[in-house]
Amino acid sequence: MEEGCRVDLVGEVLDQRLLDFIGRSMGCVDGLVLELRDGEPPRVTHIETGGVTLARRLRGPLGRWLAAAARRWGGTHGEPFRIPWSRVRQIGIDVEVELDADATPAWHWEHRLGRIVARIPGS
Amino acid sequence: MKLSPRQLVEVALGVLTSVGGYLDVGAVATSAQAGAEFGFRHLWVLWLGTLVVVFLVEMAGRFAAVSGHPLRAAMRERLGFNFFVATSTAELVVGVLVLASEIGGIALALQLVTGVSYRWWALPAGLLVWALLWNGTFGVLEKGVALLGLVTLGFVFAAVRLHPPLGEVARGLIPGGGGHDAAHYWFIAVAILGALISPYLFWFYSSGAVEDGWGEDHVSTNRMVAVVGMGFGSVVAAGVLIVAAMVFLPRSIVVDDYAQVALGLTTALEGSRGFYLFAASLGIACLGAALEAALAIAYVFAQGLGWNWGESLRPRRAARFTLTYTAALLVAVVPMTLGVDPLALTVFSMALTAVVLPITIFPFLMLMNDERYLGRHRNGKLSNAVVIGVIALAFVLALVTIPLQLAGG
Fold this sequence. Notes:
The complex is a heterodimer. By secondary structure, chain A is of the alpha+beta class.
């Protein structure tokens, strides 16, 4: 990211599609982590993505159920998957990060289900 | 507007595809019921619904061509996650019911031809849809269904050969009431609107355009495809309505059973040709619609949650996407296997579609006016007004007539 440019966090970052370093879809920007600092403006430190973060955004039983499912079966053992803001390459109509989706928990389910799908003929 | 030969081919293919996409079990069932019970008096609902579909399909294509962005991803970006969860849940319920109706339509067509009950055909029909999705690419499915969909033109020929009274047909094109049994007349009007304005068609159409990599140069071909293709589709639906009005109304046959419909056509259309025309049209239209409806469910979730998706990817390259339509199909097969009446389910799902239209179409309209995605290609006032007007009408009618229909049995 360039220094000094203005970003509308809720309008242009939150809920945007997240693309990895070669443009593969690796989820959405499901949450943002801000650090509060004494005497200075807050600073965005991380982007969060995945079921744990989404579960926190939903109220009621659906959120609790999703949180439990993410704790039990998710790729991050109930911790949100965080991407340091320094890895954000570009914010446009999508948010691009310098990461390999294959090597992150973002594709945990894609890989697990992919192994099941691969056993079905014609896949 | 001048078109290059390549664009002409694209328009022709697009038109064929939209005929396939336009006509589904809902359009066949509701048009047939309308004709059998109220003659030509619902014809105006067909053109009104088609007008909105033309506008919405054009918008879905334009959005994809200009922004290159999946529509449902954009809806989440602008309206947030909670809204996405609420609309997708409602759409999932309605979508699975619609999918079940389409599978019911395929199963019934097979019942008509083989004599074996639709309950036994539901699972094989679901499997057929699944196998085509699993093995086919977007282009092959789109064009295959489009070509087969031409069978449904048989209804137009049948309608012409029955020599309907043109004066009465013309009067049906002018909006008006139903005379006797107003509640039922308006309920059928709602079901027709719900059947024509199917959200799955727009998600399918725009996702296909993204998959095909449309660019801004597609904006004008897209407009022609929407107008000509949907217009053509509505002619087929009008054909079904006119045939039903000519064949069933005088004999007071109520369309509450597809087998009866097919038999009625047999007497009217010189023997077995009418019967097979009906069975083939029903089966093919429903197969096309089932493919689109199943894919649309997967598109909604994949795009809203940022999964990798695409009908042209091998299933193992988009596992979450392919397993979503697989699960939807598995659930949709259940009601038919249990023996739920396919025709009743169809008309009910179509009316229910009209109830959820505002929560899906209005956000879509918001995006179409968003400069960030569309720049100078954003909506004009006319298209906004037409869509808002008709969707509001369908919603109000649905809220009034569905309880009346349920209360009246």
